[in-house]
Amino acid sequence: MQDRPTADAQLEAQLAALELEMPSLQLRAGSVFALASAWAQRHDAIVAATPAGLLGKMEVRLRRIGIRWGMMDGTRMTGQFPVLPPRGPGDAS
Prior knowledge:
Elements: H1 7-28, H2 32-49, H3 55-68
Helix pairs in contact: 1-2, 2-3
């Protein structure tokens, strides 16, 4: 008997493939319009395959990918900042 991937596993695979494809999509696209069209096609295919119960989470994840690649408005984070420890024993701020 062959194991069939679950819908969640298939969606995870589609997201991973999208992340891996973005650099080559960006290089191959002849214009910003072509890149935006390629992104929109993949975005819409993933959204269409997402069950209603997971749609909100999937849209958030797609938005993060879109922000990272300049396909969606949002603040891009290019580095992480560690939390600073308190200055003294009584300073919790």
